[in-house]
Amino acid sequence: MEALLIVVGALAVIGLVVHTLFQEEVKACFERDPAARNVIEVLLTYPGLHILIFHRLAHALQQWHVPVVPKAVMTAARWMTGIEIHPAVNIGRGLFIDHGMGVVIGETAVIGDHVTIFQGVTLGGTGKERGKRHPTIGDRVVIGAGAKVLGNITVGNDSMIGANAVVIRDVPEHSTVVGVPGRITRIKDRAYPGIKLDHTHLPDPLAERLAALQQEIDALEAHLKEHRKSQPKS
Length: 234
Description:
By secondary structure, this protein is α/β, with parallel strands linked by helices. It has a domain at 90-223: Hexapeptide repeat proteins (UDP N-Acetylglucosamine Acyltransferase, domain 1, 3 Solenoid), CATH 2.160.10. It is built from six helices and 15 strands. It has helices at residues 2-21, 23-32, 39-45, 47-63, 69-81, 205-230, and strands at 84-85, 90-91, 96-97, 104-105, 110-111, 116-117, 122-124, 136-137, 142-143, 148-150, 154-155, 160-161, 166-167, 175-178, 183-186. Helix 4 (47-63) packs antiparallel against helix 5. It is elongated, with a radius of gyration of 24 Å.
């Protein structure tokens, strides 16, 4: 009984420390996941939070130039969470990784504040070059399930990457990207409060242009038919 009380007490202390040090990340879980019920559940069962705890430790060791250990920590964390993040990645405040299985974030990636990443996302490089070779993600960006953001590019603040999009060029602020390769629908001079998490029902600029072209073709055909009817029969 005493051993059980000690274990429970230790877990409570650890939970309190984690909640204090990762207050914004825990808050993000409740703000962006309707399935989050209580703090204990989030602390014990959310792999997206667990990987950030491991990463903060490994990143500090990486900054102190400790060899081997940072990668070993993140390798163990990958086995536990299904999420792979290089210890050198710079991560801002309030990152939320939803589910997280299959997420891969490369060494020189930079992630801003209050970013949301869904499962299967890759922030990867495009070759064997050294130096900055992974994306820079701005603040309040949402990256949909299965999306790939590749190369030394920048995704501007308040942008949204649609599910399964492949992004290989810079994305301006307040933009939506869909498709393969990613196509940009820019929303100029419009900022929306809060973080929009609907990364599947997004505008498709190519489909919209094709639909507009089809409407013009239909109108021309109707005009030609009327013109032919109005001509005198020979």
